[in-house]
Amino acid sequence: MPLASNTGTKPLLYNLTLDELKNWLVESGEKAFRAQQIFDWLYVKRVASIDDMSNLPKDLRQKLNEQFRIDSLKEITRQVSQDGTIKFLFQLVDGHAIETVIMRHNYGNSVCVTTQVGCRIGCTFCASTLGGLKRNLDAGEIVAQVLMAQRSLDEQGERASHVVVMGIGEPFENFDNLLAFLNIINDNRGLNIGARHITVSTSGIVPKIYEFADKGLQINLAISLHAPNSELRSKLMPINRGFPLPKLMEACRYYIEKTGRRISFEYGLFGGQNDQPEHAEELAELIGDMLCHVNLIPVNYVPERDYVRTPRNEIFRFKRILEEKGINVTIRREHGSDIAAACGQLRAQHAKETAG
Predict the structure, then answer these.
(1) How far apart are CA 199 and CA 171, in angstroms?
(2) Annotated catalytic, 20?
(3) How confident is the model at residue 131 (pLDDT cuts 50, 70, 90)?
(4) 252 assigned binding-site residue
(5) In angstroms, what CA-CA distances link 38 with 30, 53, 208, 332?
(6) 292 labelled as ligand-binding?
(7) 300: annotated binding-site residue?
(8) Where is the active site (predicted)?
């Protein structure tokens, strides 16, 4: 059966995995093989209308139109950075706005997707939490972000090769829709985004880290860490009070042991807060025995927040201390520094403008 919609409208056809689409077809008195044809229209030819699926019988197209929709996202605006980063603000069918970003790397084009309208995690440095959580996205609304990005890349003869689930919201608080989304974009009969080219980032929902590990997926896991001790992490990320750092580290070790896969720790550097040499020493002590990688993030300035960027020489000092302790570490390359690059910033601007 079609997955329920969070919008009170017809569910998106993008909500369905290939197997779910086959089941729906059989239950509707249709042939299961039509599922592959529909998948091809959606994700390879990337049509914008069910009526364009010309090799389907007319009565099947009518059934699909009666049961589903594929008009999920409307582009409100896009910002294009000098470095090629493209940030989209999309309007959902219920009027809410979300962000999606295309980032260009030397290894390909990465699409950063949003999983919730707003966020309730409350990280003190993040624009996404401004205004709180409105609702979860359907799986299809997350899939549609990749499709919209790919259509933009199609115009330049390019392909989305990587997906990062690091946009607005906490993915593990929308777990079932997240898993369906991952299944759909990974399917080699559709968008065919390789599992090892997909990264999911969580602020540290400990029970879901265990559950994710047990799924046995080859998808990369990133943890938004941002502090080397519980006291500081609770100040930056209130979620640490519910899932304290020692419990989070236990879950990370379980994930590594269960999957054999490396974890990435995202560590935003906030001037004078968590970027001193003693913090680097403490971080190395915390994760030194783990199969992991640290991604240092020079923070984007958010007007609504008080944090400032760590000076460049101090960023490299922090990196050097970690490397001397044997930690694999990189500094995240900045994307879109000349546009509203911080996650949630463009949406927050739009909310102000429409409210005013």
Answers:
(1) 11
(2) no
(3) confident
(4) no
(5) 12, 7, 32, 38
(6) no
(7) yes
(8) 99, 343
Mean pLDDT of 99-108: 94
* pLDDT the model gives residue 1: 43
Q: Which pLDDT does position 345 carry in this prediction?
A: 57
Pairing of strands 86-91, 97-105: antiparallel
Residue 48's φ and ψ, nearest 5 degrees, are: -100, 0
Q: Provide mean pLDDT across the span 306-319.
A: 90
Selected catalytic residue, list 112, 252, 292, 343: 343
Q: Which two structure tokens, joined as six digits, stand for 4?
A: 């329920």
pLDDT at 339: 54
pLDDT, mean of residues 230-244 = 96
pTM as predicted: 0.91
Give pLDDT tens digits for 8-28.
679 999 999 999 999 999 999
How far is it, in rounded angstroms, from Cα 127 to Cα 322?
Answer: 28
User: Quick one: CA torsion of 337, 330, 310, 236, rounded to 10 degrees?
Assistant: 100
State which CATH number among 3.40.50.11270, 3.40.50.150, 1.10.150.530, 3.30.420.40 fits the domain covering 13-67: 1.10.150.530
In the chain, where the domains are located: 13-67, 74-355
**Both structure tokens of 353:** 């403008």
Q: Of 99, 141, 173, 266, which residue is the catalytic one?
A: 99
Q: Is 304 annotated as a binding residue?
A: no
Q: How far is CA 164 from CA 102, 155, 219, 237, in A?
A: 10, 22, 10, 21
The reply, when asked if residue 126 is annotated as ligand binding, is yes
- Homologous superfamily of 74-355: Aldolase class I (3.20.20.70)
Question: Which amino acid appears at position 308 of this protein?
Answer: V
- Is 225 annotated to bind a ligand? Reply is yes
pLDDT value at position 341?
Answer: 52
Distance of CA 110 to the CA centre of its chain: 11
| 3 state SS of 112 | strand
Length of the chain: 356
Known catalytic membership, residue 99? yes
